[in-house]
Design a protein that fits this description.
By secondary structure, the chain is mainly α. It contains 10 helices and no strands. The longest helix has 31 residues.
């Protein structure tokens, strides 16, 4: 990974550019800024300095559309019709747009973490940007644009609940909300394959493969934080789930993918128990 240079002026620091991307309202501009930022960091043309204070704003930049509605009011997705497939793709694109903001926020909000932590989350932001652009392009092929359907704000609401503590953020955003994608994406792939949509299937296969790494990054830094505070990670994860997560754990769990993403057998057993009530 690239190292920081003492000669790099603060104005050129990667996290300042990450903050600018986080505040950007236009989705495609935000996505491309993330890709360019990570390329500069990976090629050691731009340094990352561990922040001494949080740079994060209260809210990320986002467009006026899509409008936010309760989850129950998001359109149903009947995949037999192009409009239904477009609604599904839009919902996933919205998740990926939020995931860009979540990765950038993780990088600019929390201070005092090892340098690799910031590299990891800038790389995740670039991946999420790629996913969003792929889905936005697929929407356009179907005659739609991001913002044409209403969406809900559940991912960012969890970011707000966990903004005060990097350990809690790592436990509950990548390891709960984003890990849910590991569980549901294989089923979506099969449904889309059954209705003859190989283009969207190909995009979701890319997303499924790369999201596994993102969840693993969350697991790794969650365990790092637990070790630094002398906390047992499995019990800590269960405690945080009970106190912060109001949703329902649903089966099936993609246990092979979750194991590769560093879920322990104890954690998987706890999730299975929670799913059964």
């Amino acid at each position: 990974m690239p190292s920081t240079s003492p000669d790099t002026p603060l104005a050129d620091d990667a996290l300042n550019q990450a903050l600018s991307a986080l505040q950007q309202q236009h989705p495609e501009t935000k996505a491309r800024a993330c890709q360019l930022l990570w390329r500069a960091v990976a090629e050691q043309r731009l340094a990352v300095s561990v922040p001494l204070q949080s740079l994060a704003p209260d809210q990320p930049g986002r467009p006026e559309q899509p409008g936010m509605v309760p989850p129950s009011e998001v359109p149903r997705r009947r995949l037999g019709k192009p409009s239904g497939r477009a609604a599904l793709i839009h919902a996933i694109a919205h998740i990926e747009f939020n995931a860009i903001n979540l990765a950038l926020d993780a990088a600019v909000r929390f201070t005092g973490m090892p340098l690799d932590y910031y590299h990891d989350w800038l790389s995740v932001a670039a991946d999420e940007a790629k996913h969003f652009l792929l889905l936005a392009g697929r929407l356009q092929q179907l005659g739609y644009h991001y913002g044409d359907f209403p969406a809900h704000n559940g991912l960012w609401e969890m970011a707000e609940k966990t903004a005060h503590d990097v350990l809690i953020r790592m436990a509950l955003v990548p390891r709960v909300l984003e890990a849910r994608g590991l569980d549901v994406t294989p089923g979506m792939i099969e449904r889309l394959r059954s209705v003859g949509d190989p283009e969207t299937v190909g995009i979701l296969e890319i997303i499924l493969h790369e999201e596994e790494r993102h969840v693993e990054i969350g697991s790794r830094w969650f365990r790092h934080c637990c070790a630094a505070r002398q906390l047992e990670p499995d019990h800590t994860f269960q405690h945080l789930m009970e106190h912060y997560y109001q949703g329902q754990i649903k089966l099936p769990l993609n246990e092979p993918a979750r194991r590769r993403a560093l879920f322990s057998e104890s954690e998987l057993a706890m999730l299975r128990r929670a799913a059964h009530g």
